[in-house]
Amino acid sequence: AGAAMRTEISTAAAFVTRLLRAAGGIGEEQLRRFRERLQEELREHYKHHWFPLVPSKGSGYRCIRINHQMDPLVGKAAGVIGLSHERLFQLLPNELTLWVDPFEVSYRIGEDGSICVLYESPQPAGKASKALESSRSSCKEQWRTGRSSPSKNYNMMTVSN
Known about the structure:
Distance between the termini: 19 Å
CATH topology: Actin, Chain A, domain 4
Structural class: alpha+beta
Mean pLDDT: 82
C-alpha cells in the first residue's frame, strides 16, 4: 500500500504546507522539513488503513481534522520544526477537514463550506468515484472566507491526474 498512496499523501502534505506558507513567517527549509515529516506520519498512520478496492473504507481514520483541536499528525510534524499547537491554530484555518482516500484527496474549510477536490484519479476496474457537488468558484470563495480570523489571500491549488 506504500507506493499506492504516495500521490494522495504527497498531495495532502503539500496542501497543508501551502496553507502554512501562505500564512507567512515560516522559512522554506522549515516548510520542507514539515512536509517531509507530515508525509512520514501519514504513511505510517495509513499503512493498515488503505483499501483501494473499497476507497471509502477507513475514510474517517484517514481524515485530517482541525476543529478546536489540532490534528495529532499535523501537530507532530509541526513539532519537528518547533511550531506549537497555539501557533498552528494562528496559521491554519480554524475549521479544516482534509480527506485522504485512495484516488481522491479533498478538503473543506468551515463546517458548512464546499468540498473541494485537490486530487482525483480514475479508479481501476471502472468503479465510479463519489460525485462531489461543488463548483470551483464556491471553493475559491470558501478558501478566502472560511476563516474566523482576518482573511488572507490564498492561491487555490488544484492537482489532477
